[in-house]
User: Fold this.
Amino acid sequence: MEELRMMLVDDEERFLSTTKKLLAKRGYDVVTATNGSEALELLRIQNIHVVVLDVKMPGMDGIETLKAIKRSFPLVEVIMLTGHATVESAVDGLKSGATDYLMKPTDVNDLIEKVEEAFSKRQVLESRIRVAQTRSFMKSPRDIIRESEET
Amino acid sequence: MWRLYKRQEAMTKNHYATMRRTLLGVMILVPIIPFIMILAVGYYYFATSLETSTVATMKRIVEDHRQMIDSFLEERKADLDFILHIYHYGDLAEPGNLYDVFEQLQKESQAFVDLGVFNEEGIHVTYQGPYKLIGRDYSQETWFTQVLKEGCYISDIFLGFRRVPHFVIALAKEEAGRKWVLRATIDTYMFNGLVEKVRIGQTGEAYLLNSKGIFQTERRSGGNLIDKDPEKIEFPASGGIKTFISEDIRGDAFLYATTWLKNKKWLLVVRQQKSDAFGALRSAIYLTLLVTLLGGGAIIGTAFYLTDRIVGRMEKMDEDREQLSGQLIRASRLAELGEMAAGFAHEINNPIQIIKNEQALMEVNLTELKEAGEIEESTPLEELEDSLHQISLQISRCAQITQAILKFGRQTEPVSRDVDLREFIPEVTSMVANKASVHGIDLKQQVAEGTPPIHGDPGQLQQVLLNLFNNAIDAILARHGPQGGELVVGAGAKEDGKVKIFVSDNGTGIGPEDQKKIFSPFYTTKPVGKGTGLGLSVCFGIIGKMGGTMEVTGEENVGTTFTITLPRAA
Assistant:
């Protein structure tokens, strides 16, 4: 079982630093980014399971970032952080592939709860992938050897 | 700024004053000018026709009268002529015969006073009559000399030997180379009566003047026989009736009609006081003046009244329009404010989030320090912890407020769903709980247990309730000040199965007149700038769209209750 790795994306630096500290005290490893492009960069380099993404950001905004992430890293779970309190942006986010949404201002505990939920979903997905892959391996040793010789 | 406003006000007042003057001017002049013209023309024609007809009547009277007098004289002449032809001088020289003749003559006409025969020398030979005239010598008398010359003569009034005013008709005849004269005296009194008896109005009179202006008959208004007529009137040159107006010596104006008699050079004068003759004209003048005054007064009065009404109405319309535009401006400003509030709430959320996080971190660090034994329990520590806790609470409160604002400011399509009032009402009430408690208002909730759910957009329902709450709080504050206010919100089922929601307060109350109008748009009892008058009319509309009704009850200085009735959710 891998350890949960998450990323926080928000344009407020202070929010990132303090939340990171709080989460660290609870034993979580957190990566932070202040804008969408930085977030995508980090996703390329590191293996991240859950992204908590602020909807309203200057430059590449939340929904755009969400769509980009889902395009390039479909397995990454994204939780929208919306200060809008408008159902639309949450609905938009969910339709565009977000796993869940949180309303600002959030409680750290609520945040952790949602992240864990998303992570377990990710784990279930990963285990299913492995099962599917294993099934394909289990076809015949000769096929496996042939495949490994071909690659 | 105030001066600018005052000047604008003065300009507006000027504008109305000018309008008023113009309207007044037009409304008075336009009817009055034709009115006066009609009256003037009518009066002129009336006056002219009256004058003409009066003068015509006068002329007719004069003509008829003249004819009558002329006839009289003609007949008397004819009577004498008859005698002259039948009898000879010798016959009539006998007194006895003359007496018979005279008797016959008097049967013809009572106008004959006496009868006399004169010889060529002018001696009164025979006489029948009351006077002692026999033997008198008349050869020097004008009438005698004239009658010998002309054969027929009517004299003017003269005294004669009898020393009594009279006039005579004399005829002369030639017989056997000698002339003789037959003369009769006409009864002055009777003749007078004949001439005088003409009725024309109140002051009409007729009299005869000779060519020298001497009265031949008495004038009713003063003028004795043989006196000279004091009024200097023009004598017409020849025949024909002459009418004119002249003033007498006393200054009264008279309408005169004069004509010469045919049988004698006497002027028949008929006159009537002008005021009498044209009396109808005088009353016409009075009547016209009266009508002018009344009509003019009515026109002017109506003009003033109508102008007042019109200008007043225009002023009111302008006022209303200004008020409306002011309200529109306020309404749009409020809408802008609403949007600003939403933006504000968005912005605030970020700092609030950060503060929340920092507070959480502080709590965690403090716990760590305590567990590591770095700090000891003490009062300051307790207070620190307490403060941290408070911060957390207040942050939650901020969050709730911004959530409420943002929910309220949403401009999404109303989304109807079933709403459980037992949860919903407390939720909305809590939004004003603080405001209420700050103002010393006792906030009570009476949501009945069995309250059925209703179907509607919770956002709009919240809007309605908040509006009612805010109105109630304002009313309570206006009446009670900082203490003693009571606000009750409740819900329950009605007998007919519908659901009722009520908001009750003990504020200033609403009078019966205002209660009727209170759901109208732009109706507000609040002073200018405070309140648009939109709230209740919008609420009324919202409830109506939900299929419900809204009512207000209450009394001034007691309180007000708004009751919403909605159908229950199916």
Summary: Residues 108-137 of chain A form the longest helix (30 residues). The helical segments of chain A are 13-25, 36-45, 62-72, 87-95, 108-137, 141-150. Chain A has a mean pLDDT of 85. DSSP finds six helices and five strands in chain A.
